[in-house]
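The passage that follows is intended for readers who have already worked through the single-chain material. We present the inputs for a multi-component assembly, then the predicted structure in tokenized form, and finally a short commentary. You are encouraged to pause after the input and sketch how you expect the pieces to fit together before reading on.
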Amino acid sequence: MSRSRKPVMKCRHCSEPPVINMRQHKLALCGPHFVEWVRQQTERFIEKYRMFTRDERVLVAVSGGKDSLALWDILLALGYQADGLYIDLGIDGGLGYSSQSLACTQGFMAQHGGDLTLHVVSVADDYGATIPAAARVSQRGRGKPCSLCGLTKRHIMNRVARDYGYDVLATGHNLDDEVAVLFGNTMQWSVEYLARQGPVLPPSHPGLARKVKPLFRFYEREMAAYAIVRGIEYVYDECPHAAGASTIRYKELLNQLEADSPGIKLQFYLRFLQAREQHGLFEAVRQQVELFTCPSCGQPTTNDGECSTCRTWDRIRVRIAHSANHPAS
Ligand code: Q46
Ligand code: ZN
Ligand code: ZN
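Having made your guess, compare it with the prediction:
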């Protein structure tokens, strides 16, 4: 009686055991070959989608998580001019989330010899309160901080890119993030968001940087594997406010689909981009948006007057000052 042995899996390029098997690509790779593959692929996507060139200055938004640190690592290895931006949101959640995130970012810089440039912006110092404290008094998002947080982060990224003359702003969104957002936008038929979602967002206003997502074709597990193989220490915990977010539920659902049909997430996203580019899907919506300049911060706004970030934070500061003066009310 012959016993069937499970075939031993090997790296596609050498005889070492693989660190990852990417079923959607039918590709298993060992650590060094996986790192090489990720970098080559990233370079290919940067060129294919005309994200940026080596002459342009790139600002990478780093959160201390695996994706943004992996992105910074990849861009540096490929020889791009990449600096970092860390936004201190002042989120603690019992875990010291923001301070841990900054510590991981600084650890990453030390690993790279310490001569990298990192811009650190504190929301509390620049806007007057941490995100959780501001969310408690803001009417935006009904006490949940994410809407205010997203608005403020975008405002800061635009500001730092403009003030320091960066051509491009790069974020570490991976395929799982992008597909979950696309799924949510499709479920709601949020045509304005669908018209703008993509790996490259050209500047909508003078002085704004182009926004790019060089990792948008990598699965989340690929980025986790990259960070681990490269020995990058990153914050494992999600932001404590992420719990219950609809994107997390969408990710679970999409993972179930992916387990049955490897590659379905990538296909869903790429075919959306194709439909939009080749068939002009949502083109009419894109052309309808008229932008004004906020008189306070100079950033684009859909209102003729102060932008929603300036208005929201003005109200928050008033409420905080009022409650400081009237503690019992
Ligand atoms: S950081 Fe900010 Fe996220 Fe935390 S408060 Fe919400 S939006 S969950 S990406
Ligand atoms: Zn190998
Ligand atoms: Zn403004």
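Commentary: The pocket of zinc ion (ligand 3) is lined by residues 294, 296-297, 299, 306-307, 309-310 (CB under 6 Å). Strands lie at 20-22, 27-29, 57-62, 81-88, 118-122, 168-170, 200-201, 210-212, 292-293, 300-301. How closely did your sketch match?
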